[in-house]
Amino acid sequence: MDLMRRLSVMTAAIAAITLALIIPASAAPAERTAASVGPVQLYIGGLGSGPYNVAVQSAVGTAMDSAVSRGFDPARCNLVKGPTVVNQLPNGYVQVAVEYLCAGDPYAPGPTFVLNRYHKSSDTQSNTWYHPNGYQLQGPLGSLYTYAAEGTTPLYLCQVRGDHFTSTDVNCEGQQYVTRLGWLYTTQPDGVATVQLLRCLRNENRQIFDSIQSNCEGQTHGGVLGYTLA
Fold it and tell me: What range does the record give for the signal peptide (predicted)?
């Protein structure tokens, strides 16, 4: 009976979190302070080979080059994993991997970028920065501004129990913050072509996903996140 009670409590807690996330937090006004805008956070890896010390230096250099190519100041990147030997080569040399977490406001080459939706069996996520490993591209959901344009609010990528979702709440509605994705309109603007970005919930597994289809692709409608550029 104790086990059954514990399982019932756990099931109820998970259901409560899911229900709380169905309706997105209200979009904050565009005048929010810079301190309240969450940073872009990206994990960037590097791989190097050779004698151990050389391999480490090469891995770090590769990661820093990648960070710079993404527009980050290397000083804003902190080592979070490694150096780790991932392969022993036949000649006695090694391959070493490192991973950095870079945070801040990377240089953006243009005023907008595309918000794409990606899917794998256990998760669907929307992302502007990269194609997540192991995910299939499902298609674009419009574009986001790379800066705080008038009438816009930041859109964030968040996570709950391995399920990614987007939110206009910098606190991710009490769940885990992942990164800032860009800015979208809080209301439909005049004279600008936009599409409505909706939060949806899959009926079969309660998985949260974004859609620009008004019927949530036949799934549960969870509310309007905002408006992306068409």
Answer: 1-27
Alpha-carbon distance of 213 to 209, in angstroms, equals: 12
Rounded Cα distance between 73 and 91, Å, is 36
Rounded Cα distance, 190 and 170, in Å: 26
What does pTM read for this prediction? 0.82
Residue-wise DSSP of 70-127 = TT--GGGEEEEEEEEEEEE-TTS-EEEEEEEEEEE----SSSEEEEEEEEETTEEEEE
Domains and CATH numbers, the chain: 40-104 (3.10.28), 108-229 (no CATH)
Query: Rounded mean pLDDT of 117-131?
Result: 94
SS3 12: helix
Written as six digits, the tokens of 122 are: 């256990």
Amino acid identity of residue 53, one-letter, is N
pLDDT one-digit tens code per residue, 144-162: 999 999 999 999 999 998 8
- In degrees, rounded to 5, the angle at the alpha carbon of residue 218 between the alpha carbons of residues 155 and 225 is 15
- Cβ neighbours of 111 (radius 10 Å): 11
Cβ neighbour number for residue 214 with a 10 Å cutoff: 10
d(CA 129, CA 144): 11
Whether residue 122 has pLDDT greater than 90: no
Cis peptide before 39 (omega within 30 of 0): no
The token pair at 218 is: 């036949």
The answer to whether 164 and 157 have CB atoms below 8 angstroms apart is yes
